[in-house]
């Protein structure tokens, strides 16, 4: 990339959740629902002495993308590590449910979800888990009508139950800085030991769960540079392609077959995983 191109590039990662939504929607169409001025906050955090945030860490933006109705759901990784509680997850699930209802009424509303999240908010435990399950169900419902695009760019990554939500999206877009996994490095080390996964080894972390590796192993669909214009372009392209012939979660048998080839008696390496998963998958 030449010097001028670098100067012209706008980092998507460095944008806030609200700014990311603005960049993805067509110019001038951004309209926020349940905005911070409505003060819809978690009723549980304050009881535990934790400062709340007026939007509970989730931005819901309506507008258009490529001239078609769209909703962008941005998770703010700066608040509680992007973790999902009762209110924040309900905002996402409810928006997706309304988008599906729009489609049943003939309004082709699409959805884009910005995943910067560590998963469930531990302070809200089962309430958050139940709401994440509602998000997953709502994605599966909506994707019957319109593509549901997931984006994980960085720096938080996408973990826990929300990594499952990312996995059931029609398309998943990642950058090199992204990370995607059911359990985070420290959790894996805690439960399985440092010999299984060294949470201090950044090369190992990105080698196994980083955006480029997830793309190479077909656990993500699109790999894009950290550039706001490039991210919007690939979102538009994915939406124009429509629903894929088979979403990732509809190819379970193929993924299980590849998983069975990963050696269970030793810590996997990035090269091993890439070699196995790059063979492809059958439904």
From TrEMBL:
Q: Which PROSITE patterns match?
A: COA_CT_NTER (PS50980)
Which Gene3D superfamilies does this entry report, sorted A to Z? 2-enoyl-CoA Hydratase, Chain A, domain 1
Key words of the record: Transferase
Supply one GO BP term. carbohydrate metabolic process
Q: Give all residue intervals belonging to the CoA carboxyltransferase N-terminal domain.
A: 1-247
User: What molecular function does GO assign, one term?
Assistant: carboxy-lyase activity
Q: Would I find Protein transport among this entry's keywords?
A: no
Give the matching NCBIfam families. Answer: malonate_beta, PRK07189.1
Official protein name in the record: Biotin-independent malonate decarboxylase subunit beta
Question: What's the source species for this entry?
Answer: Pararobbsia silviterrae
